[in-house]
């Protein structure tokens, strides 16, 4: 059986073997990370709906990323989900290895990200990822780990809460584009592909030589990410500079992904981001993704197209998009660019 390159259970520090070391031009320059700018934090407990819609749409247009507080998901549930996922990564590697695969068609899997580097082959990223669907819960619960024993129950409860939150965000984002409340959700289609991707980054002996996740845009439509308190690592580009997304207590990080950029005809931005490592503490992040299913046709929404705003992308099925994504595997993703229209 294949084994994972990481053993998180013993307390000896992991060593940075050559297959983790990126060539100089791909390394993060941490001294150039700019912490005086930040993405906005939006309070969802705001009864002035016009004000809330305008704050959200401005954040989606300018940053593509924001944090939300007072979102209604119980704090205690967020803590429990982080705890069971952390426990999963701390199981003996044989336990996690049963989910290890490089077959991207598998819905439930443990894998390691890599970058393809000229002359060096695949360079592994400093982290391990566990992915699985999250909706509708009754269709997938039986695929989830039985160890730790609370995983299924806690995750199912968490998925239900995040589903409700995503519906609310999609409605606010639709209104922010001047569309009917249910427009974005309808355009994203029936039977959406929803999956989570728990990322576990162990402490790294030299964070400037490697990366947790290389710079990328998310390929889905909408992302709600929960990160541990007290350990930063996620960074986004603001005005051409890398800026950290510092964990805000009891907040979620929300970001626009590629399908939403295309649907909104470029108004909402799917922004480049990455995860860097640190040499002191392990970090866990838990993004929940909402994407169309393979048969759904995605393209700029007609109401957002006029003479001043011609369509920026051609229509495509999500299957076509994903084929292009897999074709680019291991390289810096430029997926939606393949569907751009020139004017
Ligand atoms: C991702 C991602 C960032 C993080 O999983 O797509 O961007 O903070 N994760 O781990
Ligand atoms: Ni991402």
UniProtKB/TrEMBL annotation:
<dbReference type="Pfam" id="PF14226">
    <property type="entry name" value="DIOX_N"/>
</dbReference>
<dbReference type="InterPro" id="IPR027443">
    <property type="entry name" value="IPNS-like_sf"/>
</dbReference>
<feature type="domain" description="Fe2OG dioxygenase">
    <location>
        <begin position="192"/>
        <end position="292"/>
    </location>
</feature>
<dbReference type="InterPro" id="IPR050295">
    <property type="entry name" value="Plant_2OG-oxidoreductases"/>
</dbReference>
<dbReference type="InterPro" id="IPR044861">
    <property type="entry name" value="IPNS-like_FE2OG_OXY"/>
</dbReference>
<keyword id="KW-0408">Iron</keyword>
<dbReference type="InterPro" id="IPR005123">
    <property type="entry name" value="Oxoglu/Fe-dep_dioxygenase_dom"/>
</dbReference>
<dbReference type="GO" id="GO:0016491">
    <property type="term" value="F:oxidoreductase activity"/>
</dbReference>
<dbReference type="InterPro" id="IPR026992">
    <property type="entry name" value="DIOX_N"/>
</dbReference>
<dbReference type="GO" id="GO:0031418">
    <property type="term" value="F:L-ascorbic acid binding"/>
</dbReference>
<dbReference type="Pfam" id="PF03171">
    <property type="entry name" value="2OG-FeII_Oxy"/>
</dbReference>
<protein>
    <recommendedName>
        <fullName>Fe2OG dioxygenase domain-containing protein</fullName>
    </recommendedName>
</protein>
<dbReference type="GO" id="GO:0046872">
    <property type="term" value="F:metal ion binding"/>
</dbReference>
<keyword id="KW-0479">Metal-binding</keyword>
<comment type="similarity">
    <text>Belongs to the iron/ascorbate-dependent oxidoreductase family.</text>
</comment>
<keyword id="KW-0847">Vitamin C</keyword>
<keyword id="KW-0560">Oxidoreductase</keyword>
């Amino acid at each position: 059986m294949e084994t994972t390159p990481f053993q998180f259970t013993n307390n000896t520090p992991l060593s940075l073997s050559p297959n983790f070391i990126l060539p100089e031009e791909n390394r993060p320059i941490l001294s150039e990370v700019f912490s005086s700018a930040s993405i906005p934090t939006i309070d969802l407990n705001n009864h002035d709906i016009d004000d809330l819609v305008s704050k959200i749409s401005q954040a989606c247009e300018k940053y593509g990323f924001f944090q939300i507080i007072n979102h209604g998901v119980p704090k205690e549930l967020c803590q429990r989900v982080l705890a069971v996922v952390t426990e999963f990564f701390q199981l003996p590697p044989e336990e996690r290895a049963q989910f290890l695969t490089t077959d991207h068609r598998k819905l439930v899997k443990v894998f390691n990200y890599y970058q393809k580097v000229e002359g060096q082959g695949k360079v592994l990223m400093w982290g391990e990822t566990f992915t699985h669907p999250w909706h509708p819960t009754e269709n997938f619960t039986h695929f989830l780990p039985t160890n730790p024993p609370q995983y299924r129950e806690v995750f199912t409860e968490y998925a239900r809460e995040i589903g409700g939150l995503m519906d609310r965000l999609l409605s606010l984002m639709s209104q922010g584009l001047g569309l009917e409340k249910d427009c974005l959700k309808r355009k994203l289609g029936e039977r959406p592909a929803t999956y989570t991707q728990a990322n576990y980054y162990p402490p790294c002996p030299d964070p400037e030589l490697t990366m947790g996740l290389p710079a990328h845009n998310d390929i889905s439509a909408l992302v709600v990410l929960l990160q541990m308190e007290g350990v930063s690592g996620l960074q986004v580009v603001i005005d051409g500079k890398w800026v950290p997304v510092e964990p805000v207590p009891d907040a979620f990080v929300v970001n626009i992904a590629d399908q939403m950029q295309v649907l909104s005809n470029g108004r909402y931005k799917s922004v480049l981001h990455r995860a860097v490592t640190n040499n002191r503490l392990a970090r866990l992040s838990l993004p929940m993704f909402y994407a169309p299913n393979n048969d759904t046709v995605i393209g700029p929404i007609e109401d957002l197209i006029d003479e001043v705003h011609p369509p920026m992308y051609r229509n495509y099925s999500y299957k076509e998009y994903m084929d292009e994504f897999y074709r680019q595997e291991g390289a810096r993703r430029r997926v939606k660019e393949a569907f751009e229209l020139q004017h």
